[in-house]
Amino acid sequence: MSMSSEGSLLPFSPTLRPRLLPRARLEIDRLSQQPVLLYPEGVMMLNETAAAILQLCNGEHTLADILRELASRYEASPEQLQRDVYEYLRSLRDQNLIAWLE
Predict the structure, then answer these.
(1) How many C-beta atoms surround the C-beta of residue 80 within 10 A?
(2) In the predicted model, what is the mean pLDDT of the chain?
(3) What is residue 31's three-state secondary structure?
(4) What's the whole-number mean pLDDT along residues 66-88?
(5) Residue 5 and residue 79 in contact, taking contact as beta carbons nearer than 8 Å
């Protein structure tokens, strides 16, 4: 487990590599031209940040890599982004849309 800057435990190792499961795919909606996550039970409209996170969830990037990349894109520190990114990934895992590779 890792510690956030506020000291609360986050149940993610920075070396885990998230990967979208085959049942989910990232696409651009034809009508709105906005990113969406498609899966058998529905569709999730994505904002720019959510799409950026999911583009990096290919099983090759570690959580630490993802945080560094997002920090660079959005001019923030990885520590500032950590909680939001982890909570988003946790919600995707809870919906069975991503898997963790070690």
Answers:
(1) 14
(2) 89
(3) coil
(4) 95
(5) yes
**pTM of the predicted protein model:** 0.85
Residue spans of beta strands (DSSP E) within the chain = 2-3, 9-10, 17-20, 25-28, 35-39, 42-45, 98-101
Mean pLDDT along residues 52-76: 96
pLDDT over 90 at 1, yes or no: no
Contacts of residue 53, defined as CB under 8 A and 6 or more positions apart, other chains included, come to: 66, 70, 85, 88, 89
Kindly list the structural domains of the chain, giving each domain's residue range(s) and its CATH number in brackets, ordered by start: 2-101 (1.10.10.1150)
Q: Pull the structure tokens for residue 31.
A: 């009508």
pLDDT band for 82, please (50, 70, 90 cuts).
very high
- Which residues are within 8 A (CB) of 80 and not within 5 positions of it... i.e. 6 or more apart? 71
Contact 18, 86 (CB under 8 A): no
C-alpha closest to that of 22 among 76, 97, 80, 85:
97
